[in-house]
């Protein structure tokens, strides 16, 4: 097998359950089984869908800031009997170049940029979804 470099900003890496790894087109597929490594350039908040919450019910997500700076917001932990989410009920985590955070499985999260940034994330996309943020 010939090993060649992969441009992480032009491809995602799909890690299959059987241990195989493949470069795939950079399309987030919530129906795909196996882990996905994604790197992307983000110039504006629109590039990180800041007006939406994201959730991955099947696995945690590692979010890493490679360059620049991002603000990762975690929605409130939902517990049976809790009232509906209220605007402002979110936890802010600041990531600078070379840092990462682990978003708990099933926790709503979103990002905003401090400026142009390069971001790397790793998660299991199966079942993932976006929800429009109220007022976003």
TrEMBL record:
Which Gene3D superfamilies does this entry report, sorted A to Z?
Answer: Jelly Rolls
**InterPro entries from the entry?**
RmlC-like_jellyroll, RmlC_Cupin_sf
Domain of life, per lineage: Bacteria
Q: What is this protein called?
A: Cupin
């Amino acid at each position: 097998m010939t090993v060649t470099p992969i441009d992480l900003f032009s491809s995602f890496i799909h890690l299959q359950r059987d241990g195989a790894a493949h470069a795939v087109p950079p399309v987030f597929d919530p129906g795909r089984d196996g882990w996905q490594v994604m790197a992307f350039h983000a110039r504006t908040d629109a590039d990180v869908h800041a007006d939406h919450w994201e959730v991955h019910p099947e696995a945690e997500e590692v979010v890493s800031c490679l360059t620049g700076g991002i603000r990762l917001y975690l929605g409130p932990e939902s517990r049976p009997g809790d009232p509906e989410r209220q605007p402002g009920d979110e936890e802010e985590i600041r990531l600078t170049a070379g840092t990462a955070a682990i978003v708990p499985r099933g926790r709503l999260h979103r990002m905003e940029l401090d400026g142009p940034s390069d971001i790397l994330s790793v998660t299991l996309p199966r079942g993932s979804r976006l929800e429009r943020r109220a007022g976003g």
